[in-house]
Amino acid sequence: MRAPIGSFDDARPAPLAADLLPPPVAEAVRAWRGPVPAEHLIWVDSDPAVADTADFVATYGEDLLDASANCVVVAGKRGGASRLAACVVLSRTRVDVNGAVRRLLDVRKASFAPRETATGETGMEYGGITPIGLPSEWPLLVDAAVVDLPHVLLGSGRRRGKLIVPGKALRQLPAAVVVEGLGR
């Protein structure tokens, strides 16, 4: 199979690569339902040694520069209570944590979750966190620019490998909210 974007030697429908995904991501792929079929979620092999954006694009294709998104875990606090959420923005932008995220989560203070919290709560590797397979009770804030992409490159839950999905598929995820201007 050929990936719809980038130049990868190994690309396959994510349901056929479930053994290469961490348990929460594999479970989400197996349970996938909705207008975008699970077979349209593509797993591609990638070398974690070239994870830096410039090296990654040079290795796997210039077209990935504008088709890559990051998923970050944020923590918000209000009245001593803490809540976690995830945000997905284009790789060339930053999450508006102190503006949009803080308001949308209705918290007094928001910041990036510590590494141990992000990996411990998601069951995914740091640097590979993906919105597919996150805890369903978490708010998932997705920048509208990501949803508008025909295909978007995301983490796979591990440092090795990525997922390429139609941007509109992110609307199907539990607790997904599409937000204009989430990435700046």
From TrEMBL:
Gene3D superfamilies: YbaK/aminoacyl-tRNA synthetase-associated domain. Signal peptide: none annotated. Residues 48-172 form the YbaK/aminoacyl-tRNA synthetase-associated domain. SUPFAM superfamilies: YbaK/ProRS associated domain. This is YbaK/EbsC family protein. InterPro entries: YbaK/aa-tRNA-synt-asso_dom_sf, YbaK/aa-tRNA-synth-assoc-dom.
